[in-house]
Amino acid sequence: MESHSVIFTVVLFLIVATGCRSTKSLRSNISIKDSSGHASSVILRDSSSYKSAAKEVLSVLSDDEINFQTFSAKAKVQYEDQNGKQPDFNAFIRLQKDSALWVSVNATFLGIEAFRLYVTPDSIILLNKLDKTVEYHPFSFIESFAHIPMNFTLLQNILIGNPVYEGDSVVSFRRTENQIIIGTIGSFFKNLTTISADTNKLQQIKLDDLDVFRNRTATLLYGGYEKNSGLNFATERQINVSEKSKVDVSIEFKQYEFNKELSFPFSIPHNYKTK
């Protein structure tokens, strides 16, 4: 896997999350599909009933957000792009809230550490231990290939599994027996969010680019919820992004802990070349 693919895999979470922000009010009809694939026409109205129902659901989601100071995890990652399925790898993740993200990528087929990534709100450093190179980027580097605004808060919330919403911007609301489906339109994407009606847990976020010429879509699935230390955490994530080519990422958190003391070892060997 190329070094940029390592960064891209991490920030795919961000791409999906940003579609939930900066939404704007819209008055029109929109045809949507729920996660079962059945289409239904929803008339968007600025009625108090729509807004009240949507805000109630989003309030429940907000109340269930994970409040943490540190997070660490081991995750199995499967990655497939236009070049086919790439070798699986394990990602060891350490996160200090609002401060630093540390990721060690171990190539399972080689049994060695291949990459080490260190991200702060301002910068990105990537060690490629296979090629013995180091890359330095501003955090805005993510925006250069994602083409949408990014920030560190979004990154940590999506890694943790916290939803990012603005409840007063909801433009559609539909409730079925098993699901609650909320539609928004933002600066870049049409966003369709599916929530379990039984558990109020986030199940799916579906995004479609507003720019029809880009034809960019993204789907993020959450599953395998577990309760650990009173916190609900989705141990399974699936990300599918399609534009000119398709990228599929599957992430399974094998081990995870919250609010334990962490270290962030990151030294750059003298013989590494700056790329």
UniProtKB/TrEMBL annotation:
Domain of life the protein comes from: Bacteria
Pfam hit, one: DUF4292
The name this protein goes by in its record: DUF4292 domain-containing protein
Protein species of origin: Hanamia caeni
